[in-house]
Design brief:
heterodimer, A: 268 residues, alpha/beta, TIM Barrel, 9-stranded parallel sheet, 12 helices, 9 strands, 49% helix, 14% strand, B: 403 residues, Rossmann fold, 7-stranded mixed sheet, globular, amino-acid biosynthesis (chain A), aromatic amino acid biosynthesis (chain A), tryptophan synthase activity (chain A), Tryptophan synthase alpha chain (chain A), tryptophan biosynthesis (chain A)
Amino acid sequence: MSRIETTFARLKEQQRKALIPFITAGDPALEITVPLMRSMVEAGADVIELGVPFSDPMADGPVIQKACERALAAGTGLPDVLAMVREFRRGDDTTPVVLMGYLNPVECMGYERFAETCAEVGVDGVLLVDLPPEECDEIAPLFKERGVDLIFLVAPTTTDTRIGRIAEAASGYLYYVSLKGVTGSASLNVDEVAARVETIRKLAQLPIGVGFGIKDAQSARAVSRVADGVVVGSALVNQVAEHADDPMAMTAAVSEILAGMRAAMDKP
Amino acid sequence: MTQRPDYKAFPDQRGHFGRFGGRFVSETLMAALDELETMYRRLKDDPEFQADFDRDLAHYVGRPSPLYLAERWTGQLGGARIWLKREDLNHTGAHKVNNTIGQALLAKHMGKKRVIAETGAGQHGVASATVAARLGLECHVFMGEEDIRRQKLNVYRMKLLGADVIPVTSGSRTLKDAMNEAMRDWVTNVDDTFYIIGTVAGPHPYPMLVRDFQSVIGREAREQSLAQAGKLPDALVACVGGGSNAIGLFHPFLDDDGVAMYGVEAAGDGVETGRHAAPLSAGRPGVLHGNRTYLMEDDNGQIIETHSVSAGLDYPGVGPEHAWLKDIGRVNYVAADDTEALAAFRELTRVEGIMPALESAHALAYARKLAPTMDKDQDIVINLSGRGDKDILTVAEIDGIHF
């Protein structure tokens, strides 16, 4: 079983939900990221989504746009992000790591080399925001034969027919985007999310993570009642930005948010 | 000799031109693009829709635009006859309005009350604000802060037309960033909003439908050449940023093997300096703004900043159909730098009394080199895609004159 499968199976047995933090790799400096990943695991993270910085993050709001700008200014490229995962794996062989980003840096590296390196350094899944299932024929088999999951988004606008098609192409888990908008947008509507997640469950067998608009312990708890995983990004990246020149304070602030979410999600 | 492709069969059902094009967007937009494609495929063969489009082009835009023989300039250059396809005489001053008329009709059919657009030089923003005013639609135009500075007159024009001009401060603050911001707005307001993309880039079906709307340029030029010159032209020349005016001119001639085609990119300070906007001349294939095409990127696949005196060509990508036409060798892609474009701008103004847009001046600059290499009984058609009024302040600044 893959790390992602093992993690969701374990959580299911414990009747708990996955807490999935997102940070942008190399924000604000390359050496920050791996220690921050480790402290997030200590604070209760089950899966880590690591953002690959891109110059034109079209699906992201201002918080993650600025994170990309800081990471790029620090010189973070895709090879650096892969090296971070390699380093992370030296101390952690169980927590799944999912790379999340845009297609162009991957095209630039080459699909084969990217898939090969992902498998080698211990990346468990890849989510490419601007790669819908319709365009994945070339890259999907390269991941599949190496046991790296290709994770896809499902949106509020996705039709039932498309959900079926996405579920066929996807492995690992599905990422349900809770609202129409960019990352870090206004609050989500839990009732709407619950209804959509029910629909997705009927059409797909994979665990469902929900992201976009989850800001605090309360919204994390509400979403954890209906989904298998809760993704939190902008709320953490805000703390990274605020404490950019004080790594200790940054780690403390990020851990505090995650610990609060963890407790709220685990509370019966 | 390899067999000529069936150009009319492209893009394929999924929006690909060979390995280029496609639909690379986040999931939230997929349904909206499907809806747009379905509506467009239905309407494009609907005689009533075509009649509405043709009527607007005739009576609102002022088509057909003339094909003008530039006799004095031809004489000076001493080679092929030079014909100018006068898109500068269109309402709002450029070819952009052909497309915004078409997309506004689509928006109306789809019941969308709010339109958004990105703009570089401001011509597409003005053309979008114009059709929005005419149809009573709410209009928001995203424009890079740097372009707002360069194109103050067009910004004010858009405001007079009732549009809201939103300054974009992210990234390089030019056209590509305006497009990112427009995509972000669209993903947020997808239910009631129609995104009027200004060029033959973006996700499928945009490159196809923008091309179809702009192809009126080439259809007219073909008929006019036969009527006025008695034959098809030997060469076509058009500037290429995203490439909508060029594809509009080229597309109806693609099957005419005897017609050579030149797409002229912006070489900025010179292609060899790296400070340019010429992805077909010096870029690599990649994915940006919803399609696979040639891009200007660094070794890590990050999009790099472009440089051109002309805001409308300052874009790191290019329409996917151009990328394909380059690879199969049907169109020659070349480049003209800032200095050459400015010289052509001044020359046409002084010799023919026609002030071209700085974008179009890139096409003129290349034609100026091409014409003397051709015979006097040969013909070149240049797409004069826009008028230069909007660029007077830029040129004055270069001359050290401040108003």
